[in-house]
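Job type: complex structure
Entries:
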Amino acid sequence: MKSVFFISDRTGITTESIGNALLTQFTDVEFKKEFIPFVDSESKAYQALAKISSRYIQYGHRPIVFTSIMNPLIRDKFKIDSVFHIDFFESFIPKLEAELGEKASLAVGMSHGINNEEKYYKRIEAIDFSLNNDDGVSAKNYEQADVILVGVSRVGKTPTCLYLAVNYGIKAANYPFAELDLVNKKLPKALVPFHSKLFGLTIDIDRLHHIRSNRLPNSKYAELNTCKTEVAAAENVFHDDDISYLNVSKKSIEEISVAIIQRIKLNH
Amino acid sequence: MKSVFFISDRTGITTESIGNALLTQFTDVEFKKEFIPFVDSESKAYQALAKISSRYIQYGHRPIVFTSIMNPLIRDKFKIDSVFHIDFFESFIPKLEAELGEKASLAVGMSHGINNEEKYYKRIEAIDFSLNNDDGVSAKNYEQADVILVGVSRVGKTPTCLYLAVNYGIKAANYPFAELDLVNKKLPKALVPFHSKLFGLTIDIDRLHHIRSNRLPNSKYAELNTCKTEVAAAENVFHDDDISYLNVSKKSIEEISVAIIQRIKLNH
């Protein structure tokens, strides 16, 4: 077991994410991961070092410590022999300074700060919008939507809408293809005026069966045959009405969301 | 204007995030940022390079290109003089190989993949939970909650709950302190059995006034005096009942969420 720390002067979300991406490359090692955010003073650095030392003693080897700390006085506390230290800013800032011909300001990383009022309100508004336009409750706000996700029940529309709102401030509505729409094999009337905003999600039948069975075991809704009929009908609508769509079976919410963002950009 | 690209073999969310954190250090430069995800083949790399070249011609200088691409054959396409190239894996993988005494597997970065079934269901369940336990609609599921956020209206409970669910699979409920609770200055009865799960959010009065005015201009609800009374009463409850809390006025949803995660960990 190898001890790993992710340490940041801010939330550390990015630090953990890139550190994890690096560690997944080493499949034969088991890692014990710990996460220390908001290390923005020398005393907090010393507290973190105390924890790191205790893991050194416990596991008998020096911990791997990923940091993103802008202030060199704080960051340098981790440059000691008993720590295997990788800092994500340090390596790149000097190169960028040379390329841009400007000195870095060394302000604490701002990527997750509330520094942008407008962006903050946009995000809160998008969250309210997604909550109020979930599950096809009403089509009257679709004029304001950035995107409207369509597809069968449990294909992943709601999680994707919320992810887009919470992380990107994108106003995402969703409209489930219900039984009636699927029998008609036609795009529901309420959606016709908003064709350019539609984005379809589809899924492998086995996976949908699995997800629905997890939710409502032994129901008609979860039956393989129901899943098959519904998915086929939905995909028919996507084809006939020329709606871009994505099979989400092997995709995470992040991947689906990024694919949708790319699509929205193309439409603007 | 400097042209910047974020290019990844997966979503590129992390690449963009760390790239942006680096660029915010250069306050005198204006950047034109572009984002190309899912570059997982040589032909997609060439497509990206075509776009990069067009920006070189347009702006008259070589673009800055941040990549995180695991396959060296694809990544190396960006190692040309007309590109200022920074790759987030390349710099660190050899160091980690040396430290761990193992070769990297060079699989595409998996941090956002759906590779973990259990994690996927946990997340979907948490999203359902947060949607069904928003705004104190019912206390009957609080047994299952990982955390219950409390505070006055528009302090940021719902966005934080959704962020925790969508990004971390944490079951977060929220319960608004309504007028009656605030007149009594007592913790609502429904919450008493779940004291160990409570986490309070508070906010500066001016900021709350600003947020509420944005939502319902000229209402009693948004009046500075209403905000003052409600916030004071809520903070009283936090003190009297020994509930950990956080002032969110200058904090982003990410920062609030990470602070809450730290708190949840301490309680386990």
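Summary: The beta strands of chain A are 2-8, 31-36, 64-68, 84-87, 147-151, 172-176, 198-202, 245-247. DSSP finds ten helices and eight strands in chain A.
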